[in-house]
């Protein structure tokens, strides 16, 4: 994608500079967290969001890095809560450095995200960015708590699930674009529209992720069926339980019968297909994609929206 290599090179410089006048036992894990790869989509969105309204890349790199710090702080803490030992094929921060360090590293990264996101802006625009970052951080935490609460509930409604993924996933994509637009000093109306575009694409992203977890292609290297085995309260499960499934099929969906993992995955896939949940999810994802492009079409942009259209299409057409 355009600007990716240049942005990654700049990010490497920033990451190398994180060793401040403080303990290396704090900053080394932060550097590790920021060097473990990833697509850097959120940072790119900040660049594209700012460039769309005429901002220079040099003014956007630091805020983009702030967005990536915020995203990676959430991953550091998520891995602790999820007991996930690996992140992008490498030991998670807490696995490598310990849980206490993982908590402190995530806390520090969340504050550093605010510092970096301010860039070199005047006070009023810095304040707008800080408010955006703080609001987003709180919403991400709200979404994470909702997701944890769902694990203890048998019944979750569709609107509750959509609110959860909006907070946990989508608002950060919206914020990434909004920060870029603020740097570019776009109009309040366009800032709101670009934020909404990102939020809608974020919802579509998570819905596609849910689809791929249950119906993706294992040849791409990811095991299929994790959400099924964990009885994850996705749209697929919610709509399946809302349909008139038999008592036996309900047991497969909720994992209350004694069958092998392979049997459960295969049967649940069939149930979700037969009851229409699979098709419903795909159509819902495409609807959010369409709504996002509608928002983009109403923006008074100085430059081409093609990069953002490409990302939107990539999200809904991806296979991994």
Give an overview of the whole structure.
It is a single chain. By secondary structure, the chain is mainly α. It has two domains: 186 residues, Farnesyl Diphosphate Synthase (Orthogonal Bundle); 134 residues, Farnesyl Diphosphate Synthase (Orthogonal Bundle), CATH 1.10.600. Helix content is 73%, strand content 1%. Strands 1-2 form a two-stranded antiparallel ribbon. α2 packs across α6 and α9 runs antiparallel to α14. The radius of gyration is 20 Å and the shape is globular. The mean pLDDT is 93.
Summarize the structure.
The protein is an all-alpha fold and 320 residues long. Helices cover 73% and strands 1% of the residues.
Ordered list of secondary-structure elements with their pairings:
Layout: H1 4-16, H2 24-33, H3 41-52, H4 57-82, E1 86-87, E2 90-91, H5 93-97, H6 99-117, H7 123-150, H8 158-183, H9 188-215, H10 226-229, H11 235-242, H12 247-254, H13 261-274, H14 277-297, H15 306-317
Antiparallel strand pairs: 1-2
Helix pairs in contact: 2-6, 3-4, 3-8, 4-6, 4-8, 6-7, 7-8, 8-9, 9-14, 9-15, 11-14, 14-15
Task: Point out poorly predicted stretches.
Answer: none
> Portion of residues in helices?
over 70%
Structural class: mainly alpha
Number of strands: 2
The H-and-E topology, N to C, reads as: HHHHEEHHHHHHHHHHH
Q: Would you identify the CATH architecture of the largest domain? A: Orthogonal Bundle
Distance between the termini: 17 Å
Please supply descriptive tags for the structure shown above.
single chain, 320 residues, mainly alpha, Farnesyl Diphosphate Synthase, 2 domains, two-stranded antiparallel ribbon, globular
């Amino acid at each position: 994608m355009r600007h990716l290599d240049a942005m990654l090179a700049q990010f490497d410089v920033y990451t190398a500079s994180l060793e401040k006048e403080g303990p290396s036992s704090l900053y080394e894990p932060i550097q590790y967290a920021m060097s473990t790869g990833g697509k850097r989509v959120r940072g790119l969105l900040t660049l594209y969001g700012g460039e769309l309204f005429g901002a220079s890349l040099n003014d956007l790199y630091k805020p983009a890095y702030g967005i990536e710090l915020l995203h990676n702080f959430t991953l550091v803490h998520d891995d602790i809560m999820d007991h996930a030992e690996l992140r992008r094929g490498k030991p998670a921060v807490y696995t490598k450095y310990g849980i206490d360090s993982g908590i402190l590293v995530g806390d520090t990264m969340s504050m550093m995200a605010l510092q970096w996101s301010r860039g070199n802006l005047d006070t009023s625009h810095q304040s707008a960015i800080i408010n955006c970052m703080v609001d987003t951080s709180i919403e991400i935490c709200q979404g994470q708590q909702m997701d944890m609460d769902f694990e203890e509930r048998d019944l979750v409604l569709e609107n509750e699930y959509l609110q959860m993924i909006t907070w946990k996933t989508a608002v950060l994509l919206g914020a990434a674009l909004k920060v870029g637009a603020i740097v570019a000093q776009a109009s309040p109306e366009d800032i709101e529209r670009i934020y909404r575009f990102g939020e809608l694409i974020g919802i579509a992203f998570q819905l596609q992720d849910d689809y791929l977890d249950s119906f993706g292609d294992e040849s791409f290297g990811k095991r299929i069926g994790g959400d099924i085995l964990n009885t994850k309260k996705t749209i697929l499960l919610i709509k399946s339980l809302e349909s008139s499934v038999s008592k036996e099929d309900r047991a497969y969906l909720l994992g209350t019968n004694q069958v092998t993992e392979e049997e459960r995955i295969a049967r649940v896939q069939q149930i979700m297909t037969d009851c229409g949940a699979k098709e419903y999810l795909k159509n819902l994802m495409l609807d959010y994609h369409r709504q996002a492009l509608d928002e983009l079409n109403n923006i008074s942009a100085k430059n081409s929206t093609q990069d953002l259209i490409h990302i939107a299409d990539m999200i809904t057409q991806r296979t991994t």
